[in-house]
Amino acid sequence: MINSINSLSSLSITRDLSGVDLGKSQASSSAQSATNDASFASVLGNAATNAVNSIKGAENMSFQGINGTATTREVVDAVMQAQQTLQTAIAIRDKVVSAFLEVTKMQM
After folding, report:
1. In the chain, where are the structural domains located?
2. What share of the chain has pLDDT > 70, as a percent?
3. Which GO terms describe its biological process (predicted)?
4. Terminal-to-terminal C-alpha distance of the chain
């Protein structure tokens, strides 16, 4: 299911990119931004900010769809991208919680 979401969200991303090399993956750009930032906290902060902006954008696009100023495809693309962002945030949260539980179980 996540693979189908990735393919749908990539359609909305590539629609506006005419002269950009699409051989680069989103993970490599995330890794590049991680090396540019100074700390892990700033990377997580940037990721959280981007997630919130994605969800707000989907909400705004939904309102535009209700008003009739956005097409159904634009609304669906924005909502699917927000859903993927939310699933990613949940997965990261689960990994952080499990890592914390592993650390607390360690014997000193």
Report:
1. 40-107
2. 65
3. bacterial-type flagellum-dependent cell motility
4. 42
